[in-house]
Amino acid sequence: MGAVAAAAPALSAAVAAPAVAHDRTRTTTEVFGHRGASGYRPEHTLASYELAARMGADYLEPDLVSTKDHVLVCRHEPEIGGTTDVASRPEFADRKKTVLLDGVSTTGWFTHDFTLAELKTLRAVERLPAVRQRNTLYNGLFAVPTFQEMLDLRAKLSKELGRDLGVIPETKHPTYFRNLGLELETPLVHTLDRNGLNRRGARVWIQSFEAANLRVLNDKYRVQVNLVFLTSASGSPFDDSKTYAQYLTPAGLKELSKYADGIGPDKSQVIPRNADNTLGKATSLVHDAHAANLKVIPYTFRAENQFLPADYQVGTDPNAYGRAIDEQITYLNAGIDGLFTDQSDIGVLARSLRH
Asked: What is the DSSP letter of 304?
């Protein structure tokens, strides 16, 4: 795996070695490997996480869902039709179904209908094959990792690289899984405890789009690690009367600070787009969050033109790289505390070039 993960694009060669790790009081802007190095390898695989670490990411991000036998595994969603080869496996054809996932009718194959042993027979595939065709080269090579396997890799790489790699797990659809009798909080906290990571100063954040989930982790489980509330540019958390916009008012941020340590907004909430899709002017969100003693770690920074503001695109190919370094520098100069990026080497390079 190391050889596969290390075969990174040429840009990574220009990245300087990252600084020695630090505790939660560190003020340097940090790079979060979004689903690993998902711009270069199928997301949420050990190869993707390893590549992100070797590119200099400070934190690795596993999204967590549950199997039928209540084991936490790393997948972006409980539906795995687009991230594994399950659709081509005739032995699992009868597992395809439609569920109501946080109020949205969703059809496919779901991790909670598979035991870990069954899930381990599947192989990961690229989620965006039309955008990242080169990543399809690795289809079928990697298994779906458990959270424990990801943490084992983190420990191994921390020792090899000489720096304490952070981990920032996200609880995916916690209310949905709780209603299935497969709540995510207990196995998550137990896994952190077992690995000596549920302590002050540990390089760990737990993130969630549901404020109620963070409250449970803070109030009931008394977790000792940082908590970050993820927000969307529109809508509300599932089964929540308060909108994301209301959470991000000065008063809402002050309330959040009672049980959270940071926010993870959509990057458009930090610097929105103009009507012509060019990058606009920064909002007051960073200032307001810092005033409430909350870190700001926006998502998701991607290098392809179709994900960039119009004035940062290069050429007409939507899948070609644009001025991703410049975009990230612009956001870094707006005062953010970290950024989620699919290409960790670009994040590390942008950080070194910021004003």
From this structure: B
Q: 281 to each of 266, 267, 269, 278, 309, how far by Cα in Å?
A: 15, 12, 11, 10, 12
C-alpha separations of 152 from 27, 194, 271 in Å: 27, 11, 37
Instruction: Compute CA distances 313 → 50, 67, 69, 272, whole Å.
Output: 29, 40, 46, 16
pTM above 0.85, yes or no: yes
Tens-digit pLDDT profile for residues 189-216: 999 999 999 999 999 999 999 999 999 9
> DSSP states of 73-134 as a string?
EE-SSSB-TTTBSGGG-GGGGGG-EEEEETTEEEEE-BGGGS-HHHHTT--B--S-TTT-GG
Q: Which of 289, 305, 331, 299 shows the shortest CA–CA distance to 232?
A: 299
What is the separation of C-alpha 161 from the centre of its chain, rounded to a whole number of angstroms? Answer: 22
Is the Cβ–Cβ distance between 108 and 80 less than 8 Å?
Answer: yes
Q: Tokens 């490997």 correspond to what residue? A: 33
Tokens 């994040």, located at residue: 347
Give the torsion sign (CA, 234, 106, 209, 332): negative
**264 has a pLDDT exceeding 90:** yes
Q: Is the pLDDT of residue 53 over 90?
A: yes
d(CA 214, CA 211): 5
CA atoms within 13 A on the CB side of 171: 30
Reported as a single tens digit per residue, the pLDDT across 146-157 is: 999 999 999 999
Average pLDDT on 341-351 reads: 98
Q: Which residue in the block uniquely carries the two structure tokens 């993870």? A: 264
d(CA 48, CA 37): 5
Q: Kind of pairing, strands 170-171 and 262-264? A: unpaired
Which H or E run includes 219? helix 211-219
Q: Which residue in 310, 235, 233 sits closest to 274, CA to CA? A: 310
